[in-house]
């Protein structure tokens, strides 16, 4: 599965970018504190850029956190189900999540493209082009969508394996029998 490996690498890149954004945000806040306490001068961008970096952190961490099993799951009901039923429920939830994330990617692309084409800038002193933080929302949601699609492939494979091991006949297309 070369595609799954590429998706995992993208998720890892997103995780690294997310970690770097936290470090940058921490450094920026520390710089602001030091400047204000020692010289009374402000960077004038600390609040704005910390907010942008927080968006980068949240968006870019989605896929890596999902792949690492870090998203919150409520397994109270799942633990009571058979392995096949658990896979079916997980599959249904992943399909729904995939649709939601693809919609988020589409809508965030619309906002990103609108900001880029109109030249929209922030209302703050820096006049930062708004498309810069918005592109990270598009990328983060895109990476998460890809990670969900990869998960779907794994769930389908596992569902077939569970069905085969339980003696349940699985219909296969003529392509699979060749």
Structure annotation, total helices: 4
State which percent range the strand residues make up.
under 5%
Instruction: Write down the secondary-structure element order.
Output: HHHH
The residue fraction in helices comes out at over 70%
**Would you report the number of β strands?**
0
Structural class: mainly alpha
Q: Total domains, how many?
A: 1
Low-confidence stretches: 168-178
Please state the average pLDDT score. Answer: 89
Query: What is the first-to-last residue Cα distance?
Result: 20 Å
Q: What sort of overall outline do the alpha carbons produce when their principal axes are compared?
A: elongated
CA-atom Rg in angstroms? 22 Å
Largest sheet: none
What is the topology?
Layout: H1 2-38, H2 46-67, H3 83-118, H4 131-165
Helix pairs in contact: 1-2, 1-4, 2-4, 3-4
Task: Describe the fold and architecture.
73% of the residues lie in helices and 0% in strands. The chain has 178 residues and is mainly alpha-helical. It has one domain. Helix 1 runs antiparallel to helix 2, helix 2 packs parallel to helix 4 and helix 3 runs antiparallel to helix 4. The radius of gyration is 22 Å and the shape is elongated.
Relevant terms:
about 180 residues, elongated, disordered C terminus, single chain, 4 helices, mainly alpha, about 75% helix
Quick gist of this model?
This protein has 178 residues and is mainly α. It has one domain. It has helices at 2-38, 46-67, 83-118, 131-165.
């Amino acid at each position: 599965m070369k595609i799954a490996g590429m998706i995992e690498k993208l998720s890892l890149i997103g995780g690294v970018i997310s970690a770097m954004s936290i470090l940058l945000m921490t450094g920026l806040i520390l710089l602001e504190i030091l400047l204000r306490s020692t010289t009374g001068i402000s960077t004038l961008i600390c609040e704005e850029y910390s907010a942008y970096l927080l968006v980068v952190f949240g968006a870019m961490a989605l896929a890596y956190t999902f792949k690492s099993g870090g998203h919150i799951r409520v397994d109270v009901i799942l633990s009571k189900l058979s392995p096949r039923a658990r896979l079916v429920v997980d599959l249904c939830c992943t399909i729904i999540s995939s649709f939601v994330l693809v919609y988020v990617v589409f809508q965030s692309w619309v906002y990103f493209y609108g900001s880029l084409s109109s030249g929209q800038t922030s209302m703050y002193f820096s006049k930062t082009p708004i498309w810069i933080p918005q592109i990270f929302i598009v990328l983060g949601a895109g990476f998460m969508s890809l990670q969900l699609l990869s998960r779907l492939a794994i769930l389908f494979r596992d569902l077939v394996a569970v069905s085969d091991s339980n003696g349940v006949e699985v219909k296969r297309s003529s392509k699979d029998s060749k």
